[in-house]
Each structure stands twice: as C-alpha cells, then as structure tokens.
Amino acid sequence: MLAWLIFVAEEGNLHSCTELPLQRNHLPICQFNDVRGRWDPPTHTSTSHLTSTKAITIHEGLAWLLCSLWLLVLEAVHCHCHCQWLSLPEVPSPSLYFTSLLFRLPFCFALSFSLLFQLQLSLPPVSDADGYLERTFLSPASVKAGNLIRQWMEEAGLRTWIDYMGNVHGRVEGRNESAEALLIGSHLDTVVDAGIFDGSLGIISALAALKVLNSNGKLQAVRRPIEVIAFSDEEGVRFQSTFLGSAAVAGILPASALHISDKSGVTVEDVLKDSSLDITEENLLKVKYEPRSVWGYVEVHIEQGPVLEHTGFPLAVVKGIAGQTRLKVTVRGSQGHAGTVPMSMRQDPMPAAAEGIVLLESLCKCPEEFLSYDGHCKSISLKSLSSSLVCTVGEITTWPSASNVIPGQVTFTIDLRTIDDMGREAVIYEFSNRMHQICDQRSVSCTIERKHDANAVLCDTELSMRLKSAAYSAVTRLTGEIQDEVPVLMSGAGHDAMAMSHLTKVGMLFVRCRGGVSHSPEENVLDEDVWTSGLAVLSFIETQL
Ligand SMILES: *[C@@H]1O[C@H](CO)[C@@H](O)[C@H](O)[C@H]1NC(C)=O
Ligand SMILES: [Zn+2]
C-alpha cells in the first residue's frame, strides 16, 4: 500500500520506495515498514506488491482522500506535520511552499497513511512456522533473515560478512579505520510465537540511520568505524543458552557451549556446520573482538514493559540491566491422608510455602521496611533497590499433588532482579532467614538453592548522556515541540548489551511498546515511535561525524 501510494503520488512513475531519491534527512520508508516482520527487501516488497495491486477500494480511496485533506490542513496552518524533519523551511515563501508541499506529499502520505490506519501488508514475516513468528538460532528462517539484513546493509553502503557464530556484520571504516569502532546491534532471533519488534527494531533503526547518512554522502566521513551487528542468538530458545552470538563477539562464550545440544540431540556445532560455518574452538576465538579496537556498544530495543506508555514518552535511556538470581525453595513435611490427620498434628509444607511467598512479596514491595534497621545493610542505597526490585514466584510443584493428600513436599521458584547487586544479596539473605524461621515454626524443613546468578550491568554515563540528547532531539524533531526530560529506566530483561558489557562500555535506548506487551504477537510499536528510534540513532551517529 505504501508503495502504491508513492506510486500514485509520483503521478505514474513507477518507483519502489528505495529507488525514490533519498534526499535530506528522509528515512527510507519501506525499510522501516519491514521491521514489522515483513523481512522482504524493500525493492521486492514494493514491486511485487505493485504488480499484484488490485484496483483501489472505495474504502482505501476515501482514506487516501481524507488523509490528503488532513495534510493540506496541517500544511496550511503550518502545523507541525510529521514530515517537518525533512528540514524544509518553517515558513516557506508561497512558491517554495507549493514545491515543498509537492516534495513532501509522497512521504507525508506514506507516513500518515500508515500512522492513521496502521496498514498491514499481506506479506508474511520470515518465520519457521506457518501462521506465527518463530526464528531460532540458525533455523532456515533465521538464515534467510540474516541474508536479507546483509543485503540491506550492503544497500546502506556497508561492507558485510557473517562470522563463525552466524552473526551478520556491516561496517563502514570512516575517516580513520584504526580508530576504535562504534558497534550498534541487536538480535535477529525470536522466541516462539514472537512479536515482530523484539530485536529487529534495533537492527533496522541502525540500518535506516546509516542509510540516511549514506544517501547524504556523509557515511564515509564518520570519525570512527561504525559497525552494525545482527546477533544470531539472544533468546536462547533452541539451546537454552542465551547470547550465543553476542557472547562470542564479547569473548565470553566458553568453547564448551559448542557442544550444548537441543532437544533432538543436535549440537550448536552441528547447526553451525550445517550452515557451512566452519566453527572450531580456534575459529570461535576469531569471532571475539579486541577490547581496544572497540569504542562502545549501543542497542535500541523495545521496552517490553509498560512504563514508557504510562509516561507518554516514546524513548527512554536505559540506566542499566538488572542483575538476577534464581532460587529454588523446597519445603518438606510429612505426607498424609487429607481426611484422617487432625489439623494440630500436621506437618504440612503447603502453608509454609504460601507464607514464604507472601513474605517475599512484602519484602520486595517495601524492602526498606525489612532492611533499613539492619546494620548489615547500611551500605545499600535503599532507594535504588526499592525502585528496581522485582520478585516473582512463577512455578510451584507439589508432591504427590492430589486433592485428598497432605503434600509431602512443595517446591517453588523465585526470580529476583534488581539493578543493585548488594541489595539483591541483602534481600536473599533476609528472605532466607525468615523462610527458615517460618519452616521452624511449622515444623517442616526448608532448603534454598541458588540456581542462577548474574550481576547487574550499568550503562556507561557518557554514552547514556549522548543517547539521551539524541533521543531528545529525535522526539523534538519529529513532533516539533519542546519535550519533557527523557525518562531513565532500568531494564529488567536481559539484552545483548549484557554480554557486550564484558567487551566495552554499553548504552541503550528503550522504545515505547503498546501495553508493555512483548514475546507475543500482540507486541506493537507505533509507526511514529519506530521513526523516532531511527532518528535517535541518526542523531547519535551525527555526533560521531
Ligand atoms: C586514528 O586512530 C588512531 C587510534 O585511535 C589514532 O592513534 C590516530 O591518531 C588516528 N589518526 C587520525 C589521523 O586521526
Ligand atoms: Zn530482545
């Protein structure tokens, strides 16, 4: 439809989006729309869609007309059209006004049309499954997506290659190829029945920004090498091992990871070899980057939480990625008949577990009430702890799990995250003490095992400052209004930036998503916000010119 509109607006000249003259700061429209899961390259998308375009329906025609009127009104009163950032004069002379209007129309149409009606092209996303989105590590769809991304990278003027772990790289050397490189990336794999923005948005916004620079002839003039990386595995769906791609680049992926096998017994190594990637322990080391060759890593990602939508701001700077501990709590009592054992004579692990779970909730809601008077915890900044602490009991199992049996054993998991590593330890310490007290009082026994620990990652202050002003200028540029302060958020979810922090300083931007929903086909980002994220990357890179 977008292509069709441009086709109409260009008065019969058959242009695909990418063939349109890319002028000034115009971002490639089709590319942006591809982020919505339609991984076909823009040129093909547009032409194949053009040739298959049916006659315009009355509904579409009406919408188009309304849209044009709407735009004319906007223009006439010098409202801040969404296309204002095409850098045309604010108050043009009458003749310039009309030429600029003509110039802007195709883009305004395309943008506002999709803004207004959220048009969905009928092209399917690149997926391994029919009817839903699934791209796991080096699956056929992942390989296809990787090749498309590589093609887009080339169209954006980058030199490309695929490394031994299947990561897709596109790089421009700029003025000084021995300077430290800026890396920008995200992941191209997805969960099962995924949304189309998780991961892809970070790759596409970076590519779109570089494409603009390329079309402006500024790409080769960047001060330091800039490299976009589409990581092959972040979600870890197939091998239950997250960050296969970024951990290899950061040099923290152990060689043993190559021997992890999936459910059907196929190993990471097998999968890579099947894709003609000659992975060996020696070659794995070649994927690693030298810390001194890298300046920093930047990632744009959807928020996957509801805070930005609540604040009403499209972008946020990420302060850090929460550290995480997973615990397994086992409570053992004595199994018995639900009808014959009197209440006073029971050793029932279930109420103990229930009490522990409720305790955990209170502790995580108001840690200061539990920890502030504890001398041991003086050094913790309780404020940062209570603003970022989240605890979840997501799984409970009981044995023997029958309605007429007092359980002999209850097991539950705890997922505990916060940006404050010491605070996390203090909370675990406090919870363990109190849980054991509960179990003692109820004459049952408890064991608490630590299953997983990851420390928090703090984003670099300087990178964050630059990202913050880039986000600010992008939002201002797009809306034409002076904006509030860019929010600063903590990330509760892990990202490639976590692995990359072992290599270099990292910075992240979050993009607002509808209802905070992610890892679901319901995941959605406003077109406008997609544009804003691309503009923010552009503004950020412009500081590197
Ligand atoms: C290029 O970068 C290197 C490494 O940062 C630096 O030593 C050198 O001075 C730079 N060259 C120029 C011409 O700026
Ligand atoms: Zn992600």
From TrEMBL:
Gene3D superfamilies: 3.30.70.360, Zn peptidases. Residues 323-436 form the Peptidase M20 dimerisation domain. It comes from the Eukaryota. SUPFAM superfamilies: Bacterial exopeptidase dimerisation domain, Zn-dependent exopeptidases. Its cofactor is Mn(2+). InterPro entries: Amidase_Cbmase, ArgE/DapE_CS, Bact_exopeptidase_dim_dom, Peptidase_M20, Peptidase_M20_dimer. Keywords: Hydrolase, Manganese, Metal-binding, Purine metabolism. Homodimer. Belongs to the peptidase M20A family. This is Allantoate deiminase 1 isoform X1. It comes from Ziziphus jujuba. The lineage of its organism: Eukaryota, Viridiplantae, Streptophyta, Embryophyta, Tracheophyta. The gene is LOC107433468.
